[in-house]
Specification:
Elements lengths: L10 H38 L1 H4 L15 E4 L2 E4 L16 H10 L14 H4 L4 H13 L16 H13 L14 H11 L4 H5 L42 H10 L12 H8 L4 H11 L10
Antiparallel strand pairs: 1-2
């Protein structure tokens, strides 16, 4: 039996132990950081409703595995598989492929997505938030789902107008906070501009298919489902100027309006997303909405 009493470890042994401890701490820190990124990405995916669009709920499809048939201005669309399956999902994508799709609407094969996938809004997410989303999608269980062909002709005129709009649109860039505003206002503005994508429905388009910046959130005659979209600016006659901050938070929580009505149309699905936000984030959206320029629209 060896007796180490009174002996002192050599410098070599101490160095080996130090390296082992550092490697262990590094691995633990990396795993924790990856877990944090995945959790943040899961929150953003829920806020954006990625699972709502990319799950064929009607046929008991797996979450995020796509296959949902949706009506849009570009005819009937089938949502793609977002799980990391190598043949039918994102398994062969790189993080750069994901960034290009989210920022520019460009697929890995250089084809362009139609903005039924709202990349003009997701493209304003910060690089770190996009990286977190990518981490979360990569953590999903890979599900192999046969790729279904798109229906119809994908709307020749809407696609042509969209091509013109993309050519004229400004270069997409991440949203930047306003240093003159407080943290709550900036958080609300960020959520509205990105995963909340409120302008996608509530801001009317010009004849060229670009958002009409002079009528931001002032509603539209016809949304993606062909139904009128309400004005959510603080105009007291035709918007939500008579709503309190708590009223807005209530709608974002359970879809109930101050007039004891309930939201309808596409907003029903949006509320499923906003209901998964934290209370602070819903409050931040309300704070921001009460400060946008009021725009009067025909009732």
């Amino acid at each position: 039996m060896l007796d180490f009493t009174g002996t002192r470890p050599s410098a070599f042994v101490i160095a080996r132990l130090a390296v082992a401890v550092l490697l262990l701490l590094s691995a633990t820190g990396s795993a924790a950081a990856q877990g944090d990124a995945t959790n943040r990405g899961a929150y953003l995916a829920a806020a954006a409703g990625c699972d709502v669009c990319h799950t064929d709920t009607a046929n008991n499809g797996a979450a995020y595995a796509g296959g949902r048939v949706m009506q849009s201005a570009f005819d009937m669309l089938v949502t793609p598989n977002l799980t990391p399956d190598r043949d039918t999902g994102l398994g062969r994508w790189s993080e750069r492929d994901f960034m290009m799709a989210m920022r520019w609407g460009i697929a890995p094969d250089d084809s362009h997505y139609v903005p039924a996938f709202p990349f003009p809004y997701y493209g304003r997410l910060t690089d770190s938030d996009l990286a977190d989303l990518w981490a979360y999608l990569g953590s999903l269980k890979a599900v192999r789902v046969p790729v279904r062909k798109q229906r119809g002709g994908l709307g020749l005129w809407p696609r042509a107008r969209n091509a013109v709009a993309l050519a004229l649109a400004a270069t997409p860039e991440a949203w930047r906070p306003d240093p003159a505003r407080d943290a709550a206002w900036n958080r609300g503005a960020y959520l509205v501009a990105t995963v909340g994508r409120c302008g996608d429905c509530h801001t009317p388009l010009t004849a060229l298919g670009l958002p009409d910046r002079t009528r931001f959130l002032a509603g539209a005659r016809a949304g993606h489902d062909g139904k009128p979209v309400p004005n959510i600016t603080p105009d007291k006659s035709t918007g939500i100027g008579n709503w309190s901050e708590d009223d807005i938070v209530q709608v974002l929580t359970d879809g109930r309006t101050p007039s004891f009505d309930e939201v309808g149309g596409n907003m029903v699905e949006i509320v499923k997303n906003t209901a998964r936000l934290t209370g602070d984030d819903r409050r931040a959206i309300a704070v921001f909405l009460q400060t946008v320029p009021a725009v009067s629209t025909p009732k």
